[in-house]
Amino acid sequence: MYPDWLRLPIPSVSIPHRERARERQNQLTKPPGSLGILEELAVRAAGWLASDRPQLERVRIVVFAGDHGIAAHGVSAFPQAVTLEMVRNFARGGAAICVLAQETGAELEVVDAGVVNHPGQLPGVVSARVAPGTADFRSAPAMTHAQFHAALALGREAVQRGLDKGVQLFVGGEMGIGNTTAASAVGSVLTGVPPESMVGPGTGLDREGIEKKSKAIVEALAFHHLSKEDPLEVMRCLGGLEMAALTGFYLAAAQAGVASLIDGFIAASAALTALRMQPEIHPWLLFAHMSKEPGHVALMQAANVAPVLSLGMRLGEASGAATLLPILKVACALHNRMATFQEASVSGKL
User: Fold this and answer.
1) Is the pLDDT of residue 1 over 80?
2) Which of 85, 219, 317, 343 is an active site residue?
């Protein structure tokens, strides 16, 4: 039923390079473990890049945009028109992720996976529209099988464009009014956590809005009768075009032996879908930050990961993951350029 490429084998990260990196960390002029998570980040980068001196010089951020039929149910504090307006803002360089990409030296690509209204040709925006948004998942699958397969392929195509440029690390992001509702619905099925515990304020809903959001998900789950054993069908019926593209993106990147930074709540729902499809991608994913959305905790527990940062963010568009990039680069610089005890003629531990 699903494209064969989704099950392509996943290469292993370089265990010898990870082991040598860990040995080097223990020889650097510091007490072992004193640099905390920075040490583990350097070790992971060494494994990803198969390098004793890992450097992340070519990073690409890809933000997928798409609209959601469920938005008509009033599940967002912002109107659906904001998706299109934000795509235009990306093209102008005015969004948070644009600033973060500039500051971190990362390339930025935006992919229109299915915004309701066609934005036209915009600089830096790949027009790859699968459909003008998804269906209202309360009473129909969000995507047809053909639409879902096409959206998954968008992620793979974005990875290939990056590979052609020699990208060493991918960062995925999303934009779509209504997608915290979709992510909550997907997450509820994949984790078994009730919708009322998954749902949060999203773009800033009040208590009444959160209850409406939860009710919409309850209705959808009663209609579809989905199982966590079929994660792709869960994503097809409840997710979004941009979320499906992210799922394909994470799978294709891991298949190519390139790591991905996972952003917040919506990105994590796509990453968990990909993980359930291919558990072997786990070492190629680094979950960057803990979102303010309450359901993110359940997703992280289901993925068996602990995000690196916790900054109270809930913006999406890869902003949290991009914020981790300077820390990753610092971790690699410390690993590569600090002296060992022997090199510095410093006495080691007794």
Assistant:
1) no
2) 317
Provide the CATH topology of domain 4-53+335-344: 1.10.1610
Show me where the domains of the chain are located: 4-53+335-344, 59-329
| pLDDT, mean over the chain | 96
The pLDDT tens digits of the residues spanning 249-289 come to: 999 999 999 999 999 999 999 999 999 999 999 999 999 99
**CA distances (Å), 20 to each of 3, 291, 292, in order?**
38, 33, 36
State the architecture of 59-329 in CATH terms. 3-Layer(aba) Sandwich (3.40)
Give the global pTM.
0.96
- Is 317 one of the catalytic residues? yes
At residue 350, the pLDDT reads 59
